[in-house]
Amino acid sequence: MDFTTLQIGIEKNVARIALNRPEVRNAMNALMIKELTEAIDWLDTRDDIRVIEICGNGKCFCAGADLNYMKDIATYGYNQNLEDAKRLSRLFQKIYFCNKPVITLVHGAVIGGGNGITAASDVVLAEKNTVFAFNEVKLGITPATISPFVIARCGEMPARELMLSGRKFTAQEAKEYRLVNHVGDIDELNKKLDSFIDDFLKASPNAIRDCKHLIRGVCRRNNPYDEIFQTTSMMIAQERMSDDAQERMKEFLK
User: Fold this and answer.
1) Quick one: which of 20, 116, 156, 185 is 20 to 30 A from 109 by CA?
2) For residue 44, is it within any domain?
């Protein structure tokens, strides 16, 4: 498959997806959301792929939403907003429900929706100088579509602090909040990456698939997934159209 916003390499049963919009710090637009969803889906169906790695080209992993994408969103009606939010939610769902182990390697910055990619992944490795932020509240919206995945990873109390404040935090803090598994310099992270890949390749693919299903089932509690994803998509669609969000996004875009 050919992609405009991604680079994909496959070697020895491992697929490496690199977000490839370095000129905008890998900010997500509608095309990247579509292509990353398709790429995960495609690789998940391939028997020869045993592990999926996600990383970012250029200065940072992902700077959140692309400015032009935000400008487009500002003109959407509710139904368009809802469909767009559902597409974004589906991307995170594809990663979270993927039958293959997903390892995400981050550097530079992980902002807004970029945290949805990491939170939905199985293992997150962060370069020690990486900066994180859930900055949505400063734009008059909430981190709605990423929230099921973030809260599943770090829990309610850390999510309250980070999502409500919208503040920037370090890779070490992200590890303490359980948003990141390991922090180090790039050489250390590459060694960790190789170690995880080696362990995953030694395991049974069927057992890995079943174990991921087991973990999700145990953690699911009483809330049906479909209800959560529908609710969060509706929430962000409504918020984007509010006067407060429109004004704040206009100021941000300036």
Assistant:
1) 156
2) yes
96: tokens are 């979270």
pLDDT on residue 49:
98
**CATH code of the domain containing 161:** 3.90.226.10
Number of domains in the chain: 1
CB 28 within 8 A of CB 78: no
**Cβ neighbours for 97, distance < 8 A, ≥ 6 positions apart:** 216
* E-only strand ranges, the chain: 6-11, 14-19, 51-56, 102-106, 109-111, 123-127, 131-133, 168-170, 182-184
- CA–CA separation, 230 vs 202, rounded Å? 37
In the three-class reduction of DSSP (H, G, I as helix; E, B as strand; rest coil), residue 96 is classed as helix
Distance CA 150, CA 46 (A): 27
Whole-structure pTM value: 0.91
Residues 50 and 29: their CA atoms lie apart, in Å, by 28
Q: What is the pLDDT, as a whole number, of residue 222?
A: 60
